[in-house]
Amino acid sequence: MQEPVSSEPTEPEPEATRRDADVVESSRANRGWWDRNADEYQTEHGTFLGDDRFVWGPEGLDEVEAELLGPPEDLEGRDVLEIGAGAAQCSRWLAAQGARPVALDISHRQLQHALRIGGTVPLVCADAGALPFADASFDLACSAYGALPFVADPRLVLREVHRVLRPGGRLVFSVTHPIRWAFPDEPGPEGLTVSASYFDRTPYVEQDEEGRAVYVEHHRTLGDRVRDVVSSGFRLVDLVEPEWPSWNTSEWGGWSPLRGALLPGTAIFVCVRD
């Protein structure tokens, strides 16, 4: 039996390339991408992330065990800003510890999923490079793969976070481990062979037929990330590279047990505002 042919036009697949993309183009492209793909993202990864769990990356490192923001009992009464919060799963966990989190994301649709899940965490739709908060508003800031991999100049975000943190405040953020940029983004054996220069900082861009970026991701080397942190006024106190645990048999894009046993997939920066 012949399948019916859909009369609805299909969107052409974007072209993947490496080219420059500035702050404005990156922000516009990624706001649109996350709005369009939030539903699929939450459907695919929602179970792994949970509704009120704080996971730092695809390896499954949980803040309950890592305590990168400090012991859970010390979070009570703390004002916390989550950047790139998505559906605010991490913020819900923070609220359960007695903290006062605010969940910020550039994507309105991602925050609609936060409303769908529920809870009392305040939600803010804004660009991380221009935080709508007064100076010294927060004790802690965190970001699990939020904002920083997608911005053209991460120092804009880091300086904004430095501004809204109180002296002694802590920022912890996770990003794709920089070494991954030298390898294809594939979970199988093809993802184990170097295919590009680690030192090529040209952004990864997906663009439409007219050359407009619809998704942008930016590469910084490990040294770049450290210099970004320090030049923005922070002191780096730890750099965590989670190992892939034996219990985690799932694949997430280019992350997999095969690659995780051989290559770091996530880098977590623990910083203090003196």
TrEMBL record:
Claim: Methyltransferase is one of the keywords in the record: yes
Top-level taxon of origin: Bacteria
Domain Methyltransferase type: 81-173
One Pfam match: Methyltransf_11
Swiss-Prot/TrEMBL GO biological process terms: methylation
UniProtKB keywords: Methyltransferase, Transferase
SUPFAM superfamilies associated with the record: S-adenosyl-L-methionine-dependent methyltransferases (SSF53335)
Residue ranges of the region described as Disordered: 1-29
GO molecular function, one term: S-adenosylmethionine-dependent methyltransferase activity
Protein name: Class I SAM-dependent methyltransferase
